[in-house]
Amino acid sequence: MAKIVNTPPSDQAPWRRILDGRLAIPVIGSPLFIVSNPKLVIAQCKSGIVGSFPALNARPASLLDEWLHEIQEELAAHDAKHPDRPAAPFAVNQIVHRSNGRLEQDLAVCEKHKVQIVITSLGARVELNDAVHAWGGITMHDVINQTFARKAIEKGADGLIAVAAGAGGHAGTISPFALIAETREWFDGPIALSGAISTGRAVRAAELMGADFAYIGSPFIATEEANAPERYKQMIVDSQASDIVYSNVFTGVDGNYLAPSIAAAGIDPSKLGELEAVTMDFANREKTRDQKAWKDIWGAGQGIGAVKAVTPAADLVGRLAREYGEAVRAERRIALRPASDGDAASAA
């Protein structure tokens, strides 16, 4: 299939205008349902990564306008004080699922504030992408396979968030190697890779696989700014990949959850297959099980073993940046023989 080529050329594309020269490392902090708030987003952006939050975290809906004003005011003050290291832009996540009755209202607030990056989830809509483009923003749509990826680009998304196996919250099952490789066969626009990325070395690996950005969520749950119970933060620190279970029971969409939180809610994690999945309803967060997903039963990705302590978000970004720099500078751990013309001949 013919490769899709973005217009204008990649080096002049809107996403480069928004992001070039604004990041300390190529990372987008993923929008965490309930957990992400202005305090966390501001800390992420000041540290040099894209911070983001779901619009639905602002409750009541009127709070979204206040949040955006607070974030923009804080980042503008930072830029005035530190012109040599401007804050990264922030993003707002819009849930496009049919049960989200706030979508049009929240999008209008984003238009008022000229939000530069809109992340869309659970549905791709042409009119939403057109609206964001009209005010000069870009959209990135999260996908778990090629079917959804192609649909998102056909409907006007600027970029993709490839949600691979091991990602926290709602996640896919495809290896990041396969997901990125298959996407790069036909798409040359911006891609962020999500899935168990918790170290700077993993950020670099995402780039080498063909992604432009790493999309990191779970480690930021264990930060001082995050709107998460202390038990949740400590559970992230204390857990590892073997403590993550994959299920659609709690929201109707497959996702990764912390087994200890499921057990604490009185449910045997090993018997989730015996339970009937609920129907997703973003209009009513209370309409799940008695133990509400994301509130009592906590999502996390498989990369949490790298999280060793609850820290300020700036310290976490600092660690990622140091590790990323070390990975970029590192030599191969094994020496390879020099390439020769014979290699190509033998391969043929």
Automatic annotation (TrEMBL):
<keyword id="KW-0560">Oxidoreductase</keyword>
<dbReference type="GO" id="GO:0018580">
    <property type="term" value="F:nitronate monooxygenase activity"/>
</dbReference>
<protein>
    <submittedName>
        <fullName>Nitronate monooxygenase</fullName>
    </submittedName>
</protein>
<keyword id="KW-0288">FMN</keyword>
<comment type="similarity">
    <text>Belongs to the nitronate monooxygenase family. NMO class I subfamily.</text>
</comment>
<dbReference type="InterPro" id="IPR004136">
    <property type="entry name" value="NMO"/>
</dbReference>
<keyword id="KW-0503">Monooxygenase</keyword>
<dbReference type="InterPro" id="IPR013785">
    <property type="entry name" value="Aldolase_TIM"/>
</dbReference>
<dbReference type="Pfam" id="PF03060">
    <property type="entry name" value="NMO"/>
</dbReference>
<keyword id="KW-0285">Flavoprotein</keyword>
